[in-house]
Amino acid sequence: MKMIMPSILSADFTRLGDELKAVEAAGADWIHVDVMDGHFVPNLTMGPMTVEAVRRVTALPIDAHLMIDNPDEFIEKFAAAGATHISVHAESVVHLNRSLQLVRSCGAHPGIALGPAAPLSLLDWSLDYADYVLLLAVNPGFGGQEFQPAILNKVRVLRAELARRGLSTIVESDGGINEKTIADFAAAGVDAFVVGSGLFGTTDYSATLTRMRREVERGMKSAAER
Ligand code: DX5
Ligand code: ZN
User: Fold this and answer.
1) Could you tell me the residue range of the domain that residue 11 belongs to?
2) What residue's CA is closest to ligand 1, atom 6?
3) Assessment of whether the complete model's pTM goes beyond 0.90
4) Number of domains in the chain
5) Which of 12, 53, 97, 146 measures 20 to 30 Å from 120, CA to CA?
């Protein structure tokens, strides 16, 4: 099953509750929350308080993408606030498996995030601890950027490695995904698509998501025919 998850980074924060209700009604599968600390990435955004507020408005799974230094210090707080999925950047920690185990011990699904320049080899000894892998397609920090095309190949290589190991780990991608590019991500093998400006920048969320799902189908079909 393919999942589309709005990144609230691009939502109108003066009306966050309405925005969440609108994307949920439009058929969003998860809600993606971009957590940035101004150190690991050059931007400062949301924390557990935001997750708690999101939790009060929607019953959808909440994916907290931790783009922060020392994520272990905050994992419990994000889980307690209602995050169902928590991803940690492999580049941001020394003991990745410990962070993933900490997420699981808090009752959330652990994910490994990788920045565009981080090699897939960082996953080698940690894949068994993760329920999903988030491959960032842009340099982290800001919405509205164009994705780096090499990421599509990174997705393909990861997909092949998961198949080789017989793992059903979810492959998520994040950054630069919109109506024009989502088919390429689907063809490469992405399961979960994070969409920020490509959704919140449009007026009719339901129509946009419907077109995106059609594009996902088209991308999968073209990959199958290859
Ligand atoms: C980038 C964030 C993304 C971002 C995606 O640092 O992790 O989730 O919000 O935004 P768009 O879809 O606009 O590239
Ligand atoms: Zn993100």
Assistant:
1) 3-225
2) 140
3) yes
4) 1
5) 146
